Amino acid sequence: MPVNSKNTAPPVLIFWIIAGWVGFGLLPWYGIEDGFWSFDWLVDGYPFDEDYAPAAFLIAQGEKLWLSPLLLPLGLSVFALRYSKSDAAYSRLLVLAGALGFSWMIIQGFSIGIRGYNFAWMNDAFGPLGDRQYGMGYGAMVCASAFLFLLTQGIAARGAVNGDVFVVSAIGGVIVIVTAFVFFPIAKMLFAAFVTDDGTYSVLVFFDKFFDDRIWGLGCLAGSRCGAAWNSLFLAILVGLITTALGLAFALVVTRSGFRYKRLIRAMTVLPIITPPFVIGLALILLFGLSGTVTVFIAELFGVQPTRWLYGLPGVLIAQTLAFTPIAFLVLIGVVEGVSPSMEEAAQTLRANSWQTFRTVSLPLMRPGLANAFLLGFIESMADFGNPLVLGGNFDVLSTEIFFAIVGAQYDQGRAAVLAMVLLFFTLSAFYAQRAWLGKKSYTTVSGKGDAGVHPLMPQGLAIPVLAVALAWAVFTAVVYAMIVYGSVVELWGVNNSLTFKHYVTAFSVRFEEEGIRWTGAAWDSFWTTITIAAIAAPLTAAVGLVTAYLLTRQSFAGKNAFEFGTMLSFAIPGTVIGVSYILAFNVPPIEITGTGIILVVSFIFRNMPVGVRAGIASMSQIDKSLDESSLTLGANSWQTFRRVILPLLRPAILAALVYSFVRAMTAISAVIFLVSAEYDMATSYIIGRVENNDYGLAIAYSTTLIFVMLAAVGLLQLLVGRVQIGRRKHIEMKEAS
């Protein structure tokens, strides 16, 4: 038997073998009742108390004997250390150990629940179990991770993806977490579309709900109401086109113009994304509603009767354009900055004027960003329900129909699931249309060669309309936010306009006592919980999204298209469906996290991850693969190349992922409504509670506070991440302009 004497075992392999044994023998196997972050168990009966015992101690006490088979794969992993990495037995043992351990944990996790066996046939075959198990804890998570990465190292040793351990492990890790936290809960929810009233499954019940006139009706052609599906599709296309155009206009003003107040413009583009959507809706009602300031002024000026024109398609379109333009801007700013100045200078050297350079060189190289910006705007519009809920009127869309199917008196999970399938069909169709439009053309602009160029300014004929549109939209945004701030300092918004700060005092009062600061305001608990959850979720979201983007743009492997589909699936499903599906999936073992802060963090990671993926793909499409190849040629592995070469060039994408995931965690509504608990209450659920109690002043004051907090956070992230500067020269813009 060959012994691994010359070739020492890889440190990463030793790490995961040790981690597996630590998870099995030292850490509590099942979830701690006091919460994931509670460590009172260390002095409360550990390691012999059944609630806190590691798997090894449970087995030693004759408990939970279904865990004992895990000793076999753990032992096999140690045995693999006797072989060299080039030996076939090395890879076979690691694959066997990882596959056996991970498979057994899945089988026993789903087979045994809090009431014994989960399947009737198991009771018939083996008799009542007489025992039960809870959700996985520290030990089970660490051990499952160890088995997973032992398996991926074995697969890499067999030559998969050129034997690259980092790439294979990253692919395996992303597949598992996307399957666990996207496919599994959504599948559990969508199966409800085929469930009959008596609990059996039937295809007929699905078709009965699918062909409902409220979904596909074409009454709008005869002057009545259209089906929710057509309304959603038309609205999403408009929002995608308008937000992409506005996002590009703002990106060009910030990067390709001599405008003095670029920072102010940049701040104005970010404002809507850091605001709970129903607050924008309320501000629009105050401006353009039946008794709104602008509506009354125009009615008196022209002597016309005020109308309710805002409610329906116009109001929802304005609100969603306000809310989602920042997403397009955050995606496009990195792409516009990433176009190599040398290519534009080469066109000018060949006697092309500034307009020809922009039209034939710059704009075509921005196509990945334009496509991704449209896709995100389309999907966001499809999944949004806050704005249609406030401003929709009789304009039915799929997301609100899903919401009412779930939370309404009907509580029809089957109808909600059918509607979700229709919505998913539209969003995936947009996804594949985007890919077809991009085709297989190369958009590489950043290569390994030095680039000391500087981006040319926009042609004059383009700069004037672009600047006019950007400034007009920025002014409109400023007016909307002025109304929001105004609403937070009046006694009763729209009724009694006496100025007061009582809403801020009620929400955020502080008392200084001998024992220290006492947070006496009513909103502090939800505020600190929201900050904590968002701060944890944001970097994890960015990390998962950018690693996924790296795999999609830099690696070729079997099932790549399905892999990409999985990463976008959570973004295409409305948050209401995500929330309900998470409750259904994670309220019982093996993953029992309902009511904890973990379920909020997980939902934010996988709900917002696609933004990091799309921003990363758009930016990486511009970075020449020769940079990776040069790094690998010089002896670096894929992890070192990713960390030292790729990541520094992805600062715009990193910033976009961090900013978006942080502020969406702070302002998310749809999924949060279902996932909050008494211990983990989020800001948006607290604000909605105030709105339901007609306490609009406190709700607006809280929202305004969140806006300023997130503005500070965005500025801090911008400072920490920095920006990519492709050229070494800078515009001397103001001096030349003057």
Automatic annotation (TrEMBL):
<keyword id="KW-0813">Transport</keyword>
<dbReference type="InterPro" id="IPR035906">
    <property type="entry name" value="MetI-like_sf"/>
</dbReference>
<feature type="transmembrane region" description="Helical">
    <location>
        <begin position="653"/>
        <end position="676"/>
    </location>
</feature>
<dbReference type="InterPro" id="IPR000515">
    <property type="entry name" value="MetI-like"/>
</dbReference>
<feature type="transmembrane region" description="Helical">
    <location>
        <begin position="309"/>
        <end position="336"/>
    </location>
</feature>
<feature type="transmembrane region" description="Helical">
    <location>
        <begin position="462"/>
        <end position="484"/>
    </location>
</feature>
<keyword id="KW-1133">Transmembrane helix</keyword>
<feature type="transmembrane region" description="Helical">
    <location>
        <begin position="565"/>
        <end position="585"/>
    </location>
</feature>
<feature type="transmembrane region" description="Helical">
    <location>
        <begin position="65"/>
        <end position="81"/>
    </location>
</feature>
<dbReference type="GO" id="GO:0055085">
    <property type="term" value="P:transmembrane transport"/>
</dbReference>
<feature type="domain" description="ABC transmembrane type-1">
    <location>
        <begin position="229"/>
        <end position="434"/>
    </location>
</feature>
<comment type="similarity">
    <text>Belongs to the binding-protein-dependent transport system permease family.</text>
</comment>
<feature type="transmembrane region" description="Helical">
    <location>
        <begin position="267"/>
        <end position="289"/>
    </location>
</feature>
<feature type="transmembrane region" description="Helical">
    <location>
        <begin position="134"/>
        <end position="153"/>
    </location>
</feature>
<protein>
    <submittedName>
        <fullName>ABC-type Fe3+ transport system, permease component</fullName>
    </submittedName>
</protein>
<feature type="transmembrane region" description="Helical">
    <location>
        <begin position="696"/>
        <end position="721"/>
    </location>
</feature>
<feature type="transmembrane region" description="Helical">
    <location>
        <begin position="357"/>
        <end position="379"/>
    </location>
</feature>
<dbReference type="Pfam" id="PF00528">
    <property type="entry name" value="BPD_transp_1"/>
</dbReference>
<keyword id="KW-0812">Transmembrane</keyword>
<feature type="transmembrane region" description="Helical">
    <location>
        <begin position="233"/>
        <end position="255"/>
    </location>
</feature>
<feature type="domain" description="ABC transmembrane type-1">
    <location>
        <begin position="527"/>
        <end position="717"/>
    </location>
</feature>
<feature type="transmembrane region" description="Helical">
    <location>
        <begin position="527"/>
        <end position="553"/>
    </location>
</feature>
<feature type="transmembrane region" description="Helical">
    <location>
        <begin position="93"/>
        <end position="114"/>
    </location>
</feature>
<keyword id="KW-1003">Cell membrane</keyword>
<dbReference type="GO" id="GO:0005886">
    <property type="term" value="C:plasma membrane"/>
</dbReference>
<feature type="transmembrane region" description="Helical">
    <location>
        <begin position="165"/>
        <end position="187"/>
    </location>
</feature>
<keyword id="KW-0472">Membrane</keyword>
<feature type="transmembrane region" description="Helical">
    <location>
        <begin position="416"/>
        <end position="433"/>
    </location>
</feature>
<feature type="transmembrane region" description="Helical">
    <location>
        <begin position="591"/>
        <end position="610"/>
    </location>
</feature>
<feature type="transmembrane region" description="Helical">
    <location>
        <begin position="12"/>
        <end position="32"/>
    </location>
</feature>
